[in-house]
Amino acid sequence: MIQVYCIEDDHLRQVDLQPTDSLPDNALWIDLLNPTPEEDQAVEGWTGAAIPTTEDMVEIEESSRFYTEGGVKYLTVPLLHAVGKEQRRIAPVSFILTGRRLVTVRYSEPKAIALYAGRACKPGSGLLAPGSGGLSVMLGIVEAATDRLADILEGVTEEIETASQAIFHRQGADRPMSTKEFRRLLTRIGGQGTFLSKVRESLSGISRLLAYVRAAVESGESRRESRVWIKSLERDMQSLENYVDFLSNKTTFLLDTIVGLISVEQNAIIKIFSVAAVGLMPPTLIASIYGMNFHFMPELDETWGYPAALLAMVVSAILPLFYFRRKGWL
């Protein structure tokens, strides 16, 4: 699908074009979502830039993600996108700067791009100025992605805090956690740790993109506002990266805490069985002695023999338990 945005004064206007149509002169941003081969060829004809394929976009080498060819800059970054109600993944998005125009190629639907497009199409939004180029649109999308990541991290913080409360401030702390509770907490915290690694990957890709663009801007004759904007975005990315590192460390701490609690609970269970085994050893010994089939055992002929054996077994079981309690082992 091709979405073309033309600049009018200080905002964008979406124009519906077909691959066979001509590109308007004031077209500033061409957005390709799951493009067909015909749409790729049409955009290549309009801009003179080669449209990367999916295989090109998933290359992990930095030289394949950021490069200039024929005066056209190709930049690919991984952005988060939702694939379900509670599931997010990372997918590459390519930014192609050709002249004053921007071409975006994506096979996913990051919410940041839709948010930016909706805001940029409103007059007086302050996102664009008359005469803005594709670089301004790209930086605006990056800023929207940064704001989106910050909002997502707020949700992650709340989730981690909820898990922390469940671990350290449980109601009825005398009752040990059940296996179901341990499994639920491990799954929740582990899922957040995995998600934070995706956020970290996205932040790293955006930071590399900004560094590449900053070098290109400083060597060119771009506006001073673009340089200031890029530096501001880099500071925001640095603060988010530091915050993600903090959350990752907290997640690791909580996982280690849960594993430690599991070990404590297991040791407590094993201790109970060990104490029970030791406490039952003296009664078992007495029962074994009087269970021997010797012909001469005087106590067997006495009326008090049976109750005396029972009393001896009870006392021999209580005394070790009392000793363990005095030592603090129970």
UniProtKB/TrEMBL annotation:
Presence of the UniProt keyword Lipoprotein in the record: no
Key words, A-Z: Membrane, Transmembrane, Transmembrane helix
Broad class of the protein's primary localization: membrane
Protein family according to the UniProt entry: Belongs to the CorA metal ion transporter (MIT) (TC 1.A.35) family.
Protein name, UniProt field: Magnesium transporter CorA family protein
Keyword Membrane (UniProt): yes
Entry membrane topology: Multi-pass membrane protein
Species annotation: Chelativorans intermedius
Transmembrane segments annotated in the record for this chain: 272-292, 304-324
Intracellular or extracellular location(s): Membrane
Matching InterPro entries: CorA_cytoplasmic_dom (IPR045861), CorA_MIT (IPR050829), CorA_TM1_TM2 (IPR045863), MgTranspt_CorA/ZnTranspt_ZntB (IPR002523)
